[in-house]
């Protein structure tokens, strides 16, 4: 397993496709799976379009609509971030073929920050045969 760290903005999406792809390329795995895990309860990871930045802006606007200001019981003031994290999830699995991530033409892997700015970690495990 490998990991890398990110310094995140207050809220937003960070394209981590290149970092994950580099880890896959360094591994000896020719065919298998790449597991991406974010060990945080107010952040997540997702796959979405990496060609038009308006998609990410639309996603953040939708998340804000889905997590209105409610009378949350959690007293830290970041309950919407916890909800958004659960909506995206904290892990992804991507196929590895010919020692490369097998993503669709327009797909990128994004770290999702919902409660920053913070120093965050991403864990990568590549599984399979050489």
Note the main attributes of this structure.
130 residues; alpha+beta; Jelly Rolls; 3 helices; 26% helix; elongated
Shape call: elongated
How many domains make up the coordinates?
A: 1
**What is the CATH homologous superfamily assignment?**
YjbQ-like
Strand content: 35-45%
Find the count of extended strands (DSSP E, 2+ residues).
Answer: 8
**The CATH topology, please?**
Jelly Rolls
Structure classification: alpha+beta
* Helix fraction by DSSP (H/I, runs of at least 4): 25-40%
Give the count of helical stretches.
Answer: 3
Report how far the terminal alpha carbons are from each other: 16 Å
Name of the CATH class: Mainly Beta
What CATH architecture would you give?
A: Sandwich
Q: What is the gyration radius calculated from CA atoms?
A: 15 Å
What is shown here, in short?
Helices cover 26% and strands 39% of the residues. The protein is of the alpha+beta class and 130 residues long.
Descriptive report:
The protein is an alpha+beta fold and 130 residues long. The protein has a single domain, classed as Jelly Rolls (Sandwich), CATH 2.60.120.460. The protein is 26% helix and 39% strand. It has three helices and eight strands. The chain has helices at 17-26, 53-66, 79-88, and strands spanning 2-7, 12-15, 31-37, 43-49, 91-97, 100-101, 107-113, 119-129. A hairpin with a 2-residue loop joins strand 5 and strand 6. The protein starts with a strand and ends with a strand. 25% of the residues are buried.
